[in-house]
Amino acid sequence: MARILRKRKPAPAAEKAAESARMKADEVVGPTPSRNAEPDAPEGKPEKAAEAARAFLSGLFMAQRTAQFHDVHNKAYNNAVQTVHQSAASLYAITNGFSISFVGDTTILNGSRLRIDGVAFAAIRSLRMELESRQVGGLVMKTPPTYENSRALVALLTKNGSVSPEDLAAAGVGTLGIQTF
């Protein structure tokens, strides 16, 4: 007859001692850096800011695609605008104002390089090319985003590009000129 051995739980005193040793090690050495930490991300909450920026750019790209195929009164179009608004609001809440610029294939968030993974790279490149075709090299939000300025931003990316960078500035979204190395 086979006997099943169960692993015993360590005694509470042993658990406390192990936790105490981990805390002391963190005090001496500092916490272990995250694997996904971006050394050149903006100050404050770099990982959250970078993730929120990627979500914003992804939402903007999807809104661009949606705007090319749907009328402004279509529910899909309005959902895309809502996604852009929510992601912009999230990024703004983390950074308290942001600037995203494109220099070649490099994306820069508040002066620091933003790492884009392979899956999103083509989408971000397409978005950059669309913005550059309208003489926009980046976006700046210094005030909390509103649904209206998110709608204006998506309208800039439509086929006819009925919104100019000047219209965006009037709606509270600043634009940057095209930049090169």
**Mean pLDDT score, rounded?**
79
| Low-confidence residue ranges | 21-42
Task: Tell me how many strands there are.
Answer: 5
> Which class of secondary structure composition applies to the elements?
alpha+beta
Query: What is the share of helical residues?
Result: 40-55%
Largest sheet: number of strands, sense, barrel closure: 5 strands, antiparallel
Q: What is the element string, with H for helices and E for strands?
A: HHHEEEHEHHE
Helix segment tally: 6
- Please tell me what the overall shape is: globular
Beta-strand content bin: 5-15%
Distance between the termini: 74 Å
Rg, Cα atoms, Å: 23 Å
How would you write the strand order of the largest sheet?
A: 3-2-1-4-5
Entry keywords:
181 residues; five-stranded antiparallel β-sheet; globular; alpha+beta; single chain
